[in-house]
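Protein in question reproduced for absentees:

***
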Amino acid sequence: MLNLRWVDLPGDLAALENLVARIEEHDGHPAMGERKYFHLLDSPSDSDAFPPGLVAEDDGGRMVGYLATLEEDSRLWTVEAAVSPDCRSDGHLTHLLAEAGRAVGNRGGRSVRLWAYVPELARAAERAGFVLERELYHMRVPLPLGERPQFPPEIAIRGFRDGLDEDAWLEGNNRAFAGHPENGNWAFADLERRRRRPWFSSEGLRMAWDGDDLAGFCWTKVPSSGAGEIYVIAVLPGYQGRGLGRALLLEGIRHMHERDRAPACVLYVDASNLPAVNMYRSMGFRHHHTDRSYLGQLRANGPGGG
């Protein structure tokens, strides 16, 4: 049986980072969403602040899991589980989901949005009565690609200019992702939080300009080793339908391979966005794994679908 307790920050942070690194090395993809990871890192350490999640330990006191909890509104909470590969049995995962539901219920929550990044957790969610809400495809392609970016003559490409482009980028991003649950409604602090990450490169944020107007952008993310990522890509309203999306994607890929020597490129796309999925497949991208979100209503004995 796994023992759960509220995370103790900053005392648990080093062990949590080690746990996440072990999981990601095994799975080959992120162990938890970036938003929840930032929530963990940015949580205040004073005793009056409510902890951002639950730590799971085995009987020997070894940290084997982390359940991130984030209140979306007074009734809906998002939960993500990063679990060590040797603790993904049906019994362990069923126990973790029940404890997560109990914790959310004790804080006034009535429903849970659960993100499952590994198939074992997805199966556990379905057994517990959660209902599939959304699927995100993780797609990959080896580099280099044979195709080169081609932009209309009026479009100029350059990297992000620190101290000059912040307002234009934020306005453009929020227009392009209006209503989007992860990428929309960003503030300056959201941009700054990512610019402080070790992977950030101003040149890696490729921006397409039509004179003084931002037409689109492709933000790339290259860790110290491994595949580069298309972090955020967008074509602004008014510029869609001109082939800028494909050109920006190819520009980001070109930049990552030529400047950072990235051996492969990864991206995430909503499974329901068939035109984008088909475009990526036509460029050589192949499905690697699927992230799934589920919705469950809390009952007296734990989460479930209704």
About this structure: The longest strand covers residues 286-299. The longest helix spans residues 90-106. DSSP finds eight helices and 13 strands in the chain.
